Amino acid sequence: MQQIVWTFLLFWSILLTTRAGVTCVWSSGCVLPCSSQYHEIIHWYKDGKKNSVHTFYDKADHLDYQDADYKGRTSLFQDQVPQGNASLLLSSIRTTDEGRYKCYTATSSDNREQFIQLSVRAPVKNVDLKLKSGEISCSVEGVYPEPKISWSEDGSPVENFSKEPLRDKDGLFSVSSVFTQSVKENTTYTCSISLVDESQKYTTSLRPENVAISSGQDATIHCPASQENSGDSTITLTFGDSSTILNISQISQLPKDIEWKGEKIQLTPDGTVTIYNLENQEHTGTYRCVRASARSRQEVLTQVQIKSDHTKTGVVVGVVVTVFIVVVICIIVVICWVKKGTKHRKNQTDSSGNNTNSSNGNPNEQEQDIMLSTTDRSSP
Ligand SMILES: *[C@@H]1O[C@H](CO)[C@@H](O)[C@H](O)[C@H]1NC(C)=O
Ligand SMILES: *[C@@H]1O[C@H](CO)[C@@H](O)[C@H](O)[C@H]1NC(C)=O
Ligand SMILES: *[C@@H]1O[C@H](CO)[C@@H](O)[C@H](O)[C@H]1NC(C)=O
Ligand SMILES: *[C@@H]1O[C@H](CO)[C@@H](O)[C@H](O)[C@H]1NC(C)=O
């Protein structure tokens, strides 16, 4: 019987010493659990540190010899110590808090040691995927532990990318990566960030598309297709740097017709956006449709170009120029004839009625008019 009890106790202590672990979120508070029936004296230690993390006896904290890294960040649940709760509350978790902790509890007659492994996580909140001068870059900031970065092109993994990890003063990682192959239209580029221990994965993708229409045509752009686990995703369609066209949290809330700066827009559940009768040149530019959830973000970046109708303009310009030239020629012709007429008059006054021009034999209407007027004048 005694043997069974010992085996059980041994098993229990192995379980406690090897399995106890706690994952704490960077900068927030975290409880290192420990319970013991011997709770008159409580010491918390960390591997590699000589001084204690926290010390409690005579029903009070004694922190004179506390390790400097833990100053002002530790407390016990003092009201629960008499019930055997020796847990330590550690606030403002730092990356350097990672490691193995020992909870030493004792009475004057007995003591107990328990070990807890503390791990720190600074989860990925957002991954920045940018298309700039034909290059796609992916960056993430303030994560812990070090993230792994991977790229894929239309779903196939690619190895051609640069990677630059940096550690900030808090020990958090920032990674910036540039996809080093030429970026193609209608291709989906995906950057995935996962923490080294696979505890978290964040996927973000970008797809460049181009649409060229003539003024007055309908423009069709795409929003990212829904992923299987996108129950909580939001869809945002923006134009340029800031103008929000659409911002919905559920595809089922799809509004029937959207009006945006005088443009009629329709979105279908498959993610196709149609902008009707687009002719306002100010709406030439970049349309960004983003589908985002807690773990992923997909983006389609559509460059819409509205071509003003060149052939039509050409015809109009041609007609205007032709009319102008014709008018100028007419004016010149008229001026010439008027000058010629004055000369006639002069001739007629000089040689009293001697009509030199009649010998032409083929006078036109203008000539006749002038001759008529000269005859009228020369006959008083
Ligand atoms: C000790 O008390 C705190 C605060 O109520 C609680 O969060 C923790 O789980 C308790 N720990 C144990 C081992 O009972
Ligand atoms: C990576 O890019 C270089 C040139 O930029 C190219 O020569 C090489 O074949 C690429 N590698 C792969 C795996 O695509
Ligand atoms: C991209 O897709 C659009 C629409 O499907 C098509 O009109 C266009 O030609 C494609 N571009 C390329 C470079 O394949
Ligand atoms: C979309 O709406 C949500 C709340 O409904 C808001 O938090 C978010 O900032 C909006 N996004 C844009 C781009 O307007």
TrEMBL record:
Compositional bias (Polar residues): 371-380
Subcellular location: Cell membrane
Keyword match DNA damage: no
GO biological process: cell surface receptor signaling pathway; cellular response to lipopolysaccharide; immune response; negative regulation of T cell proliferation; positive regulation of T cell proliferation; T cell costimulation
Membrane topology per record: Single-pass type I membrane protein
GO cellular component: external side of plasma membrane
InterPro entries noted in UniProt: BTN3A2-like_Ig-C, Ig-like_dom, Ig-like_dom_sf, Ig-like_fold, Ig_sub, Ig_sub2, Ig_V-set, T-cell_Activation_Regulation
Source organism superkingdom: Eukaryota
Chain residue ranges for the region called Disordered: 345-380
Keyword terms, alphabetized: Cell membrane, Disulfide bond, Glycoprotein, Immunoglobulin domain, Membrane, Receptor, Signal, Transmembrane, Transmembrane helix
Primary localization: membrane
Regions that span the bilayer: 315-338
Span of the signal peptide: 1-20
Classification via SMART domains: IG, IGc2
Residue ranges constituting the Ig-like domain according to the UniProt record: 22-119, 136-207
Compositional bias per record (Low complexity), positions renumbered to this chain: 351-364
Annotated SUPFAM superfamilies: Immunoglobulin
Name recorded for this polypeptide: Ig-like domain-containing protein
Species this chain originates from: Hemibagrus wyckioides
Taxonomic placement: Eukaryota, Metazoa, Chordata, Craniata, Vertebrata
